[in-house]
Amino acid sequence: MAEIEHEVIAVTGAAGNLGTKLIAALLESQPSLRVLGLDLIAGKPDDRIEWIECNLADAGDSQWKDAIDRSTGLVHFAAKNPYPEADWDDATVSLDMTLHVMLAAAHSPTMRRVVFATSNHVMGRYKEDGANDAARKMRATDTVGVGTVWYANGVLMDSTIYAVPKFCGERLCKALAAQCARRGGPSFVCVRIGWCQPGDNSALTLNASGTPTLAASDTDAAENEGDADSLRDVALLNQWYRSMWLSNRDFTHIFSRALVAALPAERGGFLLTHGMSANSGMRWDLTESKEVLGYQPKDDVQAELRRAAAR
């Protein structure tokens, strides 16, 4: 099957961490591509990007609607709070954004492929279920376990609220894909992103805090756990979060592939898959990412850590 060709790609949350990285990679590989950057506030000026300041939570905002109606591809990153400590107000706005954007994309006369950035936190409960047993691979089609629970700096963290709109977005994409497969319209790919930190995204800065907003050391976190097993718990947390690392180049690669890869007819215009690097010993199954999208991850968190230790 022929891959999808794009003339115009719209990216929501375009001025954020993930949007900035993907747009740079897309323009480097396809200089003639037109990119529409959708965000509340425009990012850095760039002649190759048409910045569109808009509010995706406002169903009546014609700015983002017009952008979607003249795009062939859409990548949806935008969220009110992109971090796992989001509250219900954040989650409500994030879900509204996704509902508005996906419904508009499904009815766009030009749209060919929609890519939704969902999250590993939709499967977070599996952390408690043999968290680091690599023999028990987690497939994207497994029953969800919405929300991760852990301690960071002595504080109980629970990402369930953050993960709910991600899970709902996945289900929405699947339903819209089924409709579009019958009447015509775009196909949908949902990628559950691992951990792609802002900036350099070094494997060395991944830690048991589980979020870039907290830079807790292993020792501090362990001391604050308050029980005899705290050091072991922190070691397991480190392994859980490090094993979902998604390096910058693997991130841009899998999303680039998600935009263009042809989906087999039996998929019904929909694919839900995982987005992590090729991390040794992880539970996240990448079979469909590789076989359907043609994803070829290059990096391994354990190899990066070994190289750093040898310096």
Automatic annotation (TrEMBL):
<keyword id="KW-0560">Oxidoreductase</keyword>
<comment type="similarity">
    <text>Belongs to the NAD(P)-dependent epimerase/dehydratase family.</text>
</comment>
<protein>
    <recommendedName>
        <fullName>NAD-dependent epimerase/dehydratase domain-containing protein</fullName>
    </recommendedName>
</protein>
<dbReference type="InterPro" id="IPR001509">
    <property type="entry name" value="Epimerase_deHydtase"/>
</dbReference>
<keyword id="KW-0520">NAD</keyword>
<dbReference type="Pfam" id="PF01370">
    <property type="entry name" value="Epimerase"/>
</dbReference>
<dbReference type="GO" id="GO:0016491">
    <property type="term" value="F:oxidoreductase activity"/>
</dbReference>
<dbReference type="InterPro" id="IPR036291">
    <property type="entry name" value="NAD(P)-bd_dom_sf"/>
</dbReference>
<feature type="domain" description="NAD-dependent epimerase/dehydratase">
    <location>
        <begin position="9"/>
        <end position="180"/>
    </location>
</feature>
